[in-house]
Design a protein that fits this description.
- The protein is built from 22 helices and 27 strands.
- The protein is of the alpha/beta class.
- The chain has 4 domains: about 55 residues, Phosphorylase Kinase, domain 1 (2-Layer Sandwich); about 230 residues, Rossmann fold (3-Layer(aba) Sandwich); about 200 residues, 3-Layer(aba) Sandwich (Dimethylsulfoxide Reductase, domain 2), CATH 3.40.228; about 110 residues, Barwin-like endoglucanases (Beta Barrel).
- The strands form 7 sheets. A 6-stranded mixed β-sheet has the order 5-4-17-16-15-6, with helices on one face. It has a 6-stranded mixed β-barrel with strand order 22-26-23-25-24-27. The chain has a 5-stranded parallel β-sheet with strand order 10-9-8-12-13, with helices on both faces.
Length: about 675
């Protein structure tokens, strides 16, 4: 037996980007623990990754290429060789492209749990050269990215480690206990030093239970709440006029648009006590440093982009920027690493149509000229994660749509495929990954041997490029060549490469961690904060900060929200969670419907129905029900999940999916 201890990093879709220590025996992972190469990891990791061996070696792992052998969607497959499977894939793609053009093919991917080698690189090169339709990736961060870049350009926010210096921490639409656990001890250290904590969330999350103030905002009403705080800061003389004069534009226009929302009006719209919202204004104005952790929960509705922009404007209006621990954090993926991952693709974006991934069910049903005839799905599980789930599954299971899935396990999407190709997991291939919370970059080698015949994305798409005759002389093709191309894309790349070679991890230039408005500045065209950016104002229906009311009706009065589970990364690891889900609802809503804990209930709207148990919860406000995101068919009693009830409508900015705009009714089954 050959035992080995290796260093790695976790690329899964979480802000923390943990350093790992991985123990293997004969290439098989036996233990994973936290490393110390990142001070944020601090030697501990989440339970999801600690138990990853169950994912790597469980019965759902795809170990050989599979070709459909029965009716689509029934899960009937036969084993095949890679040559047979690729011959089928290449043959079908050639036929479709030759007859209908490249736009009849759609790559369907997300890649939140992937780095520069496994999301982008050869996969992007293949589809660009094929002339395939482009995919607009809108499940998450579309509206918030539009808002952040519109206001500040590409600029990192407050480093998560620097929250320890804050005197007020605001968690707005984020639950670190489930989605970024390493921020929790930093918050606790700050609180031990006297910091106050405010949580803005429809649910009473673990940190909300311990907060100094919890604002249980009605889903979709974050926008008037943030605008009311802005209005109060201006009207009470609490705005930092000197900072705004030096660093911001469109100040008077923001002041005018916020003035329509008083504390009382916003509180009524959001279902809050006016006194609580007023207390928040007082806390925020008085504290320094004060930091807002802006999450992705507040973007998942019709007003999501405007809400994110209004929350991001608060640190500017109140003058909280320019000190360590003060300002905001959205995605620190906007930290500038100088090198360009496009250098690995070496193919310009195809000038073809763009399809919103959140409307894939509609696209499969309605698009023509050309219609979609082939989907190649990788780094994604749309049958479990896309809105309007029933339409998505119907489209995937059509006999006239050729579906290829490259995945590690037999997902709900893979069961609808014509060809399933086994993929490596992150410990089994090399990747370059930069954090979007922790400001770190890792070059992580493969530390384990993949079971069966699993191929990495690099190997798969490299082979497809060759077989489709889409390679060019001098193309970087291997992981080593792709990595070299990325680091050669900027003069600073050599320094970054040297840091990675020496330490296995690189921090942003200019350590200690950069402070916004001291070490880094907005990258807007004039270097100013744009509080009402013209492009966003033109995109948002009715203009930026225009509020669209609640979509609930008498027939469907309850707001369904689908927050993250602590046991999964979206749908990843869903095969390991075998327990049936229960829908959470308040005691008030349960009593009004004669529902008690444990009852079987039906949850429905015009799109579909979910059958599951009920869980009466003190953590859910009246008018809101909770079914987690990322559920698989086996988690409910009828095989449908929250996504079967979620419309494919989009938010005001970025084409963002509006998961929290589902409105439903619940009754005993």
């Amino acid at each position: 037996m050959v035992a080995q201890l290796s260093s790695s990093a976790c690329p899964l879709d979480c802000p923390d980007l943990c350093s790992l220590e991985v123990r293997t025996e004969d290439g098989r992972v036996v233990e994973v623990d936290g490393g110390h190469r990142s001070p944020l990891t601090d030697g501990f990791i989440c339970g999801k990754v600690r138990k990853i061996a169950a994912h790597l070696y469980g019965p759902d792992r795809v170990q050989t290429p599979l070709i459909r052998a029965g009716a689509k969607g029934t899960g009937g497959f036969r084993a095949a060789t890679w040559d047979e499977a690729l011959d089928l894939v290449v043959g079908r793609l050639r036929e479709i492209v030759g007859r209908a053009g490249g736009e009849a093919v759609l790559p369907y991917h997300y890649g939140g749990s992937n780095g520069w080698l496994t999301e982008g690189a050869l996969a992007s090169r293949f589809f660009r050269r094929l002339g395939a339709s482009n995919l607009d990736r809108t499940f998450c961060a579309a509206a918030t990215t539009a808002a952040t870049r519109g206001l500040y350009g590409v600029m990192p926010g407050v480093a998560l480690e620097d929250y320890v210096d804050a005197r007020l921490i605001v968690l707005w639409g984020v639950n670190p206990s489930a989605t970024g656990i390493h921020l929790v001890p930093v918050i606790e250290r700050a609180r031990a030093a006297g910091a106050r904590l405010v949580v803005v969330d429809p649910r009473r999350t673990p940190l909300a239970r311990r907060a100094d103030l919890h604002l249980a905002v009605r889903p979709g009403a974050d926008l008037p709440v943030a605008l009311a705080v802005i209005h109060a800061l201006f009207s009470r003389g609490l705005a930092d006029d000197a900072f705004l004069a030096a660093h911001a534009v469109e100040v008077d226009e923001l002041r005018r648009r916020a003035a329509r929302w008083t504390i009382e009006a916003a509180a009524a719209e959001a279902g809050l006590a006016a006194a609580d919202l007023d207390a928040f204004v007082t806390l925020y104005a008085a504290a320094s440093p004060a930091v807002i952790r802006v999450g992705w929960g507040l973007e998942r509705n019709r007003n999501g982009g405007g809400a994110a922009a209004a929350v991001l404007a608060l640190p500017a209006v109140a003058g909280k920027l320019g000190v360590r621990g003060g300002g905001y954090t959205m995605s620190n993926g906007d930290a500038r690493w100088a090198v360009d991952p496009e250098a690995a693709i070496v193919a310009p974006p195809a000038p073809t149509r763009t399809i919103n991934m959140s409307r894939i069910g509609r696209a499969l049903r309605e698009l023509d000229a050309p219609r979609l005839e082939a989907l190649v799905v990788y780094n994604c599980n749309p049958a479990a994660t896309a809105p309007d789930q029933l339409a998505v599954r119907a489209g995937l299971c059509r006999d006239d749509v050729f579906v290829v899935v490259h995945d590690q396990v037999m997902t709900d999407t893979a069961r609808c495929a014509d060809v399933v190709l086994p993929a490596t997991a992150f410990l089994e291939h090399r990747d370059l990954r930069r954090g979007y919370g922790a400001m770190r970059l890792y070059d992580s080698p493969a530390v384990a041997t993949p079971p069966g015949q699993a191929w990495s994305n690099t190997r798969l798409f490299g082979e497809l490029l060759r077989r489709m005759e889409l390679t060019r002389p001098g193309d970087p093709m291997t992981d080593d060549e792709l990595t070299a191309a990325i680091f050669a894309s900027a003069p600073e790349g050599a320094v970054l490469r040297a840091r990675l070679d020496a330490d296995g991890v690189a921090a942003l230039p200019g350590e200690p961690r950069p402070v916004p408005f001291r070490d880094v500045m907005p990258t807007t065209t004039d270097g100013k904060i744009h509080l009402v950016p013209a492009a966003l104002d033109a995109e948002a229906p009715g203009g930026l900060y225009a509020y669209r009311g609640d979509p609930g009706t008498d027939a469907y009065p309850l707001a369904l929200i689908s927050p993250a589970l602590a046991t999964q990364i979206s749908s990843t690891f869903g095969q390991l969670r075998r327990k049936e889900v229960a829908i959470e609802l308040s005691a008030e809503d349960a009593a009004a419907r004669g529902i008690v804990d444990g009852d079987e209930v039906r949850v429905w709207n015009a799109l579909g129905e979910v059958r599951c148990a009920a869980a009466v919860s003190a953590d859910v406000r009246p008018g809101v029900v909770v079914l987690p995101k990322g559920l698989w068919r086996h988690h409910t009693r009828n095989g449908h999940t929250a996504n079967a009830l979620i419309p494919d409508a989009v938010a005001d900015l970025g084409g963002q999916a509006t998961y929290n705009d589902a409105r439903v009714q619940v009754a005993r089954a």
